[in-house]
Design a protein that fits this description.
five-stranded mixed β-sheet; about 35% strand; flat
Length: about 200
């Protein structure tokens, strides 16, 4: 059994609100966390990601762009914080566009994980995850805009409920009506390639 210590406790999250003309933004910040260097690293990464989303959505460059943004916590335990940042922008037309970016941190160090960091070096995680998703797409019978062959090595993901959730942006695979496509993969289905001291390894126990 994994030993619990202070670092495995959930981190404290505070919600900040930014209200400006054509902007309604809620974003999270880690507060009262030790070590402070980890808190600073996580908060810097969150703010950078929020600002990157705003730029991608054309705010404030396009005066027609109206933005609503919020976040969702997915995991906050065992020294892992995983969250998603949502940004919806409307600039006229039939409908707006939502983008969703995820961040997964080690709360002890503040390190942000890339998908490759979750798996053992040399393990072909791309092929394994792609095969699972390909089978799921067939089962769901979703009409695709492009043929799905493989995930990107840096595919969007978050961690929730002992599962790795791989997801695709709106339009990345399917038409707008299908929204985001999510593929929850149990940590037990891929435990042979998981890095034991990584975030998925911590969810096994």
């Amino acid at each position: 059994m994994m030993k619990m210590n202070g670092l495995d406790e959930p981190v404290s999250i505070q919600t900040y609100k930014v209200l400006r003309d054509k902007l309604n933004l809620l974003y999270p910040a880690v507060v009262k966390h030790s070590p402070y260097t980890a808190e600073l690293a996580m908060n810097t990464a969150i703010v950078n990601a929020v600002n990157k989303q705003l730029r991608e959505q054309g705010y404030p460059q396009n005066p027609q762009t109206d933005v609503t943004a919020h976040y969702e916590l997915k995991t906050n335990e065992r020294g892992i914080l995983s969250l998603t940042l949502w940004n919806y922008a409307f600039s006229g037309g039939a409908h707006g566009l939502t983008i969703q970016n995820a961040l997964t941190f080690n709360t002890e160090s503040g390190k942000a994980y890339a998908l490759k960091d979750l798996f053992k070096p040399g393990s072909d995680y791309v092929a394994k995850l792609s095969a699972i998703i390909k089978a799921e797409l067939k089962t769901r019978d979703i009409p695709l805009l492009v043929e799905f062959n493989s995930i990107r090595p840096d595919q969007d993901f978050y961690i929730a409920d002992k599962a790795l959730v791989i997801y695709f942006q709106v339009y990345e695979l399917a038409a707008y009506v299908y929204g985001f496509l999510y593929f929850p993969i149990s940590v037990y289905a891929i435990q042979d390639i998981i890095t034991e001291d990584g975030p998925l390894g911590k969810m096994l126990y």
